[in-house]
Design brief:
mainly alpha; about 70 residues; 4 helices; single chain
């Protein structure tokens, strides 16, 4: 049995703030995370809900590139 993915807790605004803190563009976050730039834009603008898997990918990306 696979462990359940964490429930998403980050908002699009928080993702955007963390990205800007690092001085990253959406294309840079896309390149580092493997998520499409379009998906990142949709998440940041609250047009697409965050999944547990995408949150884990983004958390790992921010942590590994600090």
């Amino acid at each position: 049995v696979l462990p359940a993915l964490t429930q998403p807790t980050l908002t699009g605004a928080e993702i955007k703030a963390r990205r800007k803190e690092k001085g990253w563009s959406q294309p840079k976050l896309s390149a580092l995370s493997g998520l499409s730039q379009g998906l990142i834009s949709l998440i940041e603008n609250e047009k697409r809900s965050m999944t547990g898997e995408n949150q884990e990918i983004l958390e790992r990306t921010f942590a590994l590139n600090s």
